[in-house]
Amino acid sequence: MSLKNAMTADFLRSAYGGESMAHMRYLIWGDSAEKDGFPNIGRLFRGVAYAEQVHATNHFNVMKEQVGDSTVAAGAVFGHTNIVENLQGAINGELHEIDQMYPVYLETARFQEEKDAQRSFHYALEAEKIHARLFQEAQNSAKEGKDIRSETIYICPVCGFTEIGDEVEKCPVCGVKKDLFKAF
Ligand SMILES: [Fe+2]
Ligand SMILES: [Fe+2]
C-alpha cells in the first residue's frame, strides 16, 4: 500500500482517531448498558465497537508506510449519563460520519486517486449507515424501558459490515465468507 497525497493522509489519520475513540466509547457505553439491565444493547455496543476497530485498523494499514508521529484532530462525542442519552450520542456520531465525514473523505480519495484509502473509507461509510439504524432501533426500545432482541450480532472482520441474525451468506460489502464473521 502506498499513499501519495497529504490531504488523503490527513483524512486517514483523522478517521483513525475518530474510529479509535468510537471503539472505546462503545465499550464504555456497553458496560454501562449491561449494568443498567440492557444486556442485548450492551452486546450491540460491543459488536459495533469491534466494527469500529476494523475500520481503525484498515485506515492504519493504508498508512503503514507513513512512519512517524502526528497530532490527530478527530471528532469525538462525550457524555456518559443514561442509556437513552448514550444511544443518542452514538447516533449523532454515526450520522456525522455518514452525512459529513466519510462522503467528503471518500470524494477526496477519489479525486487524488488513492485506491486503498477509497476502499477503507467506503467500507466504513457503508457500515456506519447500518450502525446508525441499529442504534436508533435500540434507542426506540430503551425509551420504552425494553432491551432489544437477543439475536446474535455478526461483524465482518474485513469491512465492519454489521448484521443482526443469520441472513447473509457472504458480506454484501466486501464479499468475505460468513464463516469468518465475528459473532457477539
Ligand atoms: Fe459505526
Ligand atoms: Fe465485509
Automatic annotation (TrEMBL):
Rubredoxin-like domain location is 151-184
The UniProt record lists the keyword Transport: yes
Q: Which domain of life is it from?
A: Bacteria
Locate the Ferritin-like diiron domain: which residues?
2-146
Cofactor(s) recorded for this entry are: Fe(3+)
Q: Which Pfam families match?
A: Rubrerythrin (PF02915), RUBY_RBDX (PF21349)
Protein name, UniProt field: Rubrerythrin family protein
The answer on whether this UniProt entry bears the keyword Signal reads: no
UniProt entry keywords in alphabetical sequence: Electron transport, Transport
Q: InterPro entries of this UniProt entry?
A: Ferritin-like, Ferritin-like_diiron, Ferritin-like_SF, Rbr2/Nigerythrin, Rr_diiron-bd_dom, Rubredoxin-like_dom, RUBY_RBDX
